UniProtKB/TrEMBL annotation:
Cited NCBIfam families: PRK12826.1-2 (NF009466)
Any Pfam family matching the protein: adh_short_C2
Name recorded for this polypeptide: Beta-ketoacyl-ACP reductase
PANTHER family reported for this sequence: 3-OXOACYL-(ACYL-CARRIER-PROTEIN) REDUCTASE, 3-OXOACYL-[ACYL-CARRIER-PROTEIN] REDUCTASE FABG
Protein family membership: Belongs to the short-chain dehydrogenases/reductases (SDR) family.
Protein origin, superkingdom: Bacteria
Amino acid sequence: MTVRTVLVTGGNRGIGRAIAEQFVADGHRVAVTSRSGEGGPEGALTVQGDVTDAASIDAAFSRVEAELGPVEVVVANAGITRDTLLLRMSEDDFTDVVDTNLTGVFRVIKRASKGMLKARFGRVVLISSVVGLYGSPGQINYAAAKAGLVGIARSLTRELGARGITANVVAPGFIETDMTAALPEATQAEYLKSIPAGRFGRVDEVAKAVRWIASDEAAYISGAVIPVDGGLGMGH
């Protein structure tokens, strides 16, 4: 295994934290961004970074590069939700989610690609959602942004694929996090019925898929959407 410098955005909780912990456990040099600049997992460098602000992202990358070396693996995970039905969704509800979950990813990968091009090596992993291609009532903003990540990964693959850089999407389904725990029990039961595996996923199951797609073993896979959803989306 080659030790890499890995940066996970939004790595202070939930799926992002589990991904960072997995890379730390595997012996990589790991940094995470959080909006507060604290709260990251043990063994990782936590830096302040707000994906809605290009200058903040630039500063975060500069600090990681100074302390850990050029970023070779970037996991774009930071995201927000503003769920509500279409007729109640304000324009701000829509644009805030798209600015964080889609434009935020653009800012991160644009900054990351500079070092990757120089090194002629890079792994870009975008954390989408089963909702991006499966759809979900009350999540038009979130689904639009998460679907957009597939277009980013595939276009990036065509642009940078000849330079040793891969770009893939990992699309989790319903995973046991604070976000799903907050759902009413009746809603959770309803969701469970539609998951062929009959259970919610664990954050470590998402983390292991990310670890693999970022590894040397997956060097010839790019532009793929890897579902980690118990069969819910059937690879839509």
